[in-house]
Amino acid sequence: MAGQMMSLAALVAARESGRQEPDQMVELARDAARRHDSEIKAFSHLAENPAIPREGPLAGVAIGVKDILDTFDMPTTYGSDIYAGYRPKTDAAIVALARRRGATILGKTVTTEFAYFDAGPTVNPHDHAHTPGGSSSGSAAAIAAGMIPAAIGAQTGGSVIRPASFCGVAGYKPSYRLLPSTGMKHFAPSLDTVGLFAASIADVALFAHLLTGRPLNPEPVEPATTRVGIYFCAELESADPEMQQALERAAEAATAAGFLLMAVSEPEENARARQAHTTLQNYEAGMSCGPDLALYEERMGKKLVATVKEGIAIPPSVYDDARRAAKRGRGATRKLFDEVDILLTPSAPGAAPEGLSFTGDPRFNKLWTLMGTPTVNIPCFKTKSGLPLGIQAVARFGKDRELLSVAMALEQAFAERG
């Protein structure tokens, strides 16, 4: 079962008060990883003697980095045997930023191969027979298992929000390009978005704030003037009954907390944009991963090979049509946020599926990745069997602080309703 999660806010407060030194903070994480990772398999590599800066806003904060992001001092395998032992010469931009801010890179977290659907060995800390989700499998599981207080992941379809939901942690996909993606093994560059994980909304917002230096720490919100919309799309009917009930409970809790609640119907342009996501993703995967396919097809996973081949076969005119559909969807999305401040949807169709080969379905996430809007998984409810169910909050592009502020208030409201 999942362990006691580490609170980033509590660790930083202990450091600021002098109760914990950076090396003591990092040792807590190293000890937890030594005790738990043989079962969870969240890390593909653990640093033997990680550097522990004593200065910087993230001094003493041990983090995991998804293994599609380059690290100069650790292997970077992109979840693939093809790159076993590969050592880049430099860090990815987001890793270099974390180091400059004082973070300790504890290790590389497991990703699916090239961040697609061919799963790695990581298990769900809540039930080892269930998937942790993907592709940021290890990042979410390491947080849920209490091994580290913060982690970096990435999302092309639903690879931050979905594993966060399955593992019961906060996963934050910022507005597109708020965090740098240079030094990532790209799958679909117009979609690939670096994201963050922590135990709670307060913790992931603090991580984003300390990492970037941007004012992303939540502000108090006034529920009576905050418009929260329940987003009704055709996909909602396909969600599991317990997830549908969780969304209903979220709506009830938001209303009880005083938020202005409304129903929002999906514009047709957004429905078409969601369908265009696969074309955009696969075409770009054909471009990004085609060179790997040409040299190493026999060593690549079957799902990955099929998708890259499909992408290579897509005519440019079809890709351009998909780009136009995405542009129209973004226009419709901007209009939506003239009427509402935050949208709520399921973070996934249901709880984590049983088995480790299927990492779950991104149907509730990929539209918002394509739109470039900030989203966050609010860890809040559970199934009767005890598996987590998350609610996804979405805000207008660039309104990341507003998203995190409202999500933190909603997280508290959901907790009060049980």
UniProtKB/TrEMBL annotation:
Q: Which domain of life is it from?
A: Bacteria
Give the classification, highest ranks.
Answer: Bacteria, Pseudomonadati, Pseudomonadota, Alphaproteobacteria, Hyphomicrobiales
This chain's protein is named: Amidase
Question: What family does the database annotate?
Answer: Belongs to the amidase family.
- InterPro entries per record: Amidase (IPR000120), Amidase_dom (IPR023631), AS_sf (IPR036928)
Q: Where is the Amidase domain?
A: 31-404
Looking at the Swiss-Prot or TrEMBL record, what is one Pfam family this protein matches?
A: Amidase
**Molecular-function annotations in GO:** catalytic activity
Membrane-crossing residues? none
Q: Which PANTHER family match?
A: GLUTAMYL-TRNA(GLN) AMIDOTRANSFERASE SUBUNIT A, TRANSAMIDASE
